[in-house]
Amino acid sequence: MVSTRTDLAMEAFNSAGGGALPGVEVRHWEENGVQVTEVLVTDNEAARQLGKPKGTYLTLESQLLRERDPDARLAVSAMLAEEIDRLLPEGDGRSSVLVVGLGNRSITPDSLGPGVVDRTLVTRHMLGAEYAALSMKSVCAIAPGVLGVTGIESMELVEALVKALKPRAILCVDSLAARDSRRIGATIQLTDTGIQPGAGVGNHRKPLTEQSVGVPVVSVGMPTVIYAATLARDAFAWLSESDGDEAGHEAALADMEKTLLGSELGEMIVTPREIDSLVQDAAGVIASAVNRALQPSLSDAEIMAMMD
Amino acid sequence: MVSTRTDLAMEAFNSAGGGALPGVEVRHWEENGVQVTEVLVTDNEAARQLGKPKGTYLTLESQLLRERDPDARLAVSAMLAEEIDRLLPEGDGRSSVLVVGLGNRSITPDSLGPGVVDRTLVTRHMLGAEYAALSMKSVCAIAPGVLGVTGIESMELVEALVKALKPRAILCVDSLAARDSRRIGATIQLTDTGIQPGAGVGNHRKPLTEQSVGVPVVSVGMPTVIYAATLARDAFAWLSESDGDEAGHEAALADMEKTLLGSELGEMIVTPREIDSLVQDAAGVIASAVNRALQPSLSDAEIMAMMD
Amino acid sequence: MVSTRTDLAMEAFNSAGGGALPGVEVRHWEENGVQVTEVLVTDNEAARQLGKPKGTYLTLESQLLRERDPDARLAVSAMLAEEIDRLLPEGDGRSSVLVVGLGNRSITPDSLGPGVVDRTLVTRHMLGAEYAALSMKSVCAIAPGVLGVTGIESMELVEALVKALKPRAILCVDSLAARDSRRIGATIQLTDTGIQPGAGVGNHRKPLTEQSVGVPVVSVGMPTVIYAATLARDAFAWLSESDGDEAGHEAALADMEKTLLGSELGEMIVTPREIDSLVQDAAGVIASAVNRALQPSLSDAEIMAMMD
Amino acid sequence: MVSTRTDLAMEAFNSAGGGALPGVEVRHWEENGVQVTEVLVTDNEAARQLGKPKGTYLTLESQLLRERDPDARLAVSAMLAEEIDRLLPEGDGRSSVLVVGLGNRSITPDSLGPGVVDRTLVTRHMLGAEYAALSMKSVCAIAPGVLGVTGIESMELVEALVKALKPRAILCVDSLAARDSRRIGATIQLTDTGIQPGAGVGNHRKPLTEQSVGVPVVSVGMPTVIYAATLARDAFAWLSESDGDEAGHEAALADMEKTLLGSELGEMIVTPREIDSLVQDAAGVIASAVNRALQPSLSDAEIMAMMD
Question: Smallest CA–CA separation between A255 and chain C, in Å?
Fold first, then answer.
């Protein structure tokens, strides 16, 4: 049983044993010092087992990213830009890509999405002449959960916008929950499956998928928290393995889950103290990839100058 | 000629001579120490002359409001609540009122709308049971210019939301430009004509009216700035009158408007230094009126407790 | 051995066995639905054992506080005001009390202190006439760790201010770490021992005590986090007890502390997801107590009106 | 009589006639497209007449700066860095320079100082080893008006810090008032005379000068506002000149100053609508000059990397 909560398909796969699983193809490689894992979920039974819908999940991982190493940041950003470009549908240059930054700005570990929106070059409101001169693509962006909308669910707002703006695709960004603390701040997941109910730090209640909004949804996320319940469960599992008394602890574990991990603690989040700068850094890396992917004709310097 | 820019119908009426004008009905009275002016614009020719569409414009004015007098705040808030209730269409208690706070939070004199949204009790997302128990009305709110939305015009976003949410009415709040500095922070205008292009501190490019969105739009505003061009023009007019040489200054005035009031200075705004606290205060008074008008079954204390 | 980290003296006492400990006097009582615990540490050996300096530690605890119950908020605030007044030295009404809000506004669980400073009525800059008319006491406040000071330690800044302003006492507010998740948001500790190095969520490197600054330091704090290392250690202890194999787990526990709780995870914090509103609420309750204690001649309504 | 209010010595000099004035030496030149004006006030009588204390005032002016031209930004930043370095006393590399950002973050045109502090590389808290390796100089920074400090005047706080930290010099940054709207956002003034009471947008009540704090004070400022009274007076003066009836308007002008420019309007400020981005831009240019001047051994890229 995969009871441990994670938004990373690669962790869900590892939790499920990590071995050969029908309906799942996994590839690992290293490129420019970045560990890449691609998980393809190809049938419904595998999707059910992993708790992840059918589709492509790409994970870029670098411990140097968390240490803010400039080379690692550049490498991850460049690779992410390429993969975003690959997953997004071809555009005719007229219909927009809508960047959606999910999450709540006032809850730090949930603020990755708004942070990326702040750093995204938006061009949809510019004049036709400007576009032509610079071969720009049309991009608009929204952070539906930041202060300023209330009584309206984020997904409801995005749906309304999609109907009005008719973008060719949504690129959404969200904070994720992981299982392993080493992945926090060090791992970026890219998927073409959109956002599922219950995922993310904010626990979205409705999906944001091609099925729900009618246009392709590519989503990018980084783990910023572990759920306390996950951490405790893993600690026990580890202990049980280490003293070889797995059966003996079964009862104690079940008991403890009820007692210690009651509703309150179970929903608590575990996060690094430096979460504020960690999220800022990650937003910078991801936004740089988003801008490159969405504006292939502009150089980094041109993008910077236009955002100033 | 009414070249002086103001968003207040009562100032436009005064600028147009203030006397009998066909198609305009004006009434003044005082209530609880608050000066009330009602301007009814009833035909198209009058609307053209005043630069204000046909409809009702109500102005509440109290210098004590600006001095933060608690009694004046309560009196204005209570009267405004009544008038909002009168202008809004009857509701069946199911369809929402959508409160729209126009303006940009990062430009202080333009931040009145977002400030009111922050203080509005929103209920649309609550459960049916909660509504029934408290006889609450459904209210949702959006501040489209602080939304982390970019590349999408505020009015475009509001239109998309109206299509999706089908509210029974919009109540919108905006910062206004006045002609007379004494009205800044001391005057609140309420109208059933919505928002016109070019109005407000942010100079909206598209209308937000019943015609544009299909539901009634009641708007509330307070002047927070004077345009520098308006100030200079008025100063000249005053001088000309005072020395009785109106003709003699005609040429100088025209010349000066070209030179001194070139594009740059003409678009500059004049605002009190304490604009920050002035806008906060006004947002409090207006939001309190909005909450009372939209939740007639709740006491002030209940509203406060629910917003906490 | 008391290796579990907590800033609450009552938890340290419980960890040390909770029984009779020479040099420690503990009293419990309930008042207005609030659980009160007073821990007096009276000799150096007890201080060493508990890891808490000699002095008085008062804890107010109410689960209703966390649920934002209005009556519980009022009860805790009133009791805290009385106790602050009791611990602060008598004033002559001329020399100020300096309220110090420790912590970093941009790290949510560390932002309690700045939040209280924002809500404290400061009067030191007012004119003599205003004081006399209202029988006000002189209060000034600083949040040294908020953005705006860099390269200068918080304690260094406070020391410099104490030399310049010569306040009669410091009342400082800080976010704390607890051991038990139920105390987060539900417990307020008041002590006359000031702030110790290593305490708080921000892990202060220097003390803020009567010894370090030369004036009495009373400090108020509320737990907003548990350290992940603490949580894991307690989980193990609990498990060991429950299966009666304490000795058997000794080795596994020591091993695990090295492995799982390496520097990274060990320093991670566990916090409720709703930490943002929890800290706002707590700042309101504490600030209300601070204002009452420091301005005994003003009513709550007068304090509110002056802060507006 | 120089009744027109400006914080720029060059404008005060022009208002005083702009011709030969005993005790004032003025030089103009152009460099890299930047207009430079140096005003040396060398005796007390000239200081009294200009309303500016004895000392050196350097003004860099470029209309392209306001248009955010990248080359103009680089040119101004490089020249300003050189001049800051020239005015600051030689350091031994051990005692710090204290950067003081005056002004209030929540009043946009008064927020230049805090904006520069946010972008200043502070090093004083780093370890000795880091300094040596990078040949860094010790820099600390404070924005006393955003500090969450209340009841304590900015200048009082700076004085307390100077006593405690014993910096070798203060470099302070403030928003200024100008007379001519074209100077807003386009002009930077550098002076070795510190800050005078009544200067700046925030109207400081106490001086920040070598005399008041005991260490050299170099100050950098940019005009962000014109006082409404200044604007009105200048408009009248212009009109009077243009119709050749200077005497005839004397009475009307005096009368008008009393009426129109009563306390309220007179203290209002005139500012561009885009003041928010204008202040952000200026803070970037000035901070870049400050960082270069204070860290001559670091490249721009190294400074950027360390601030990240």
Answer: 9
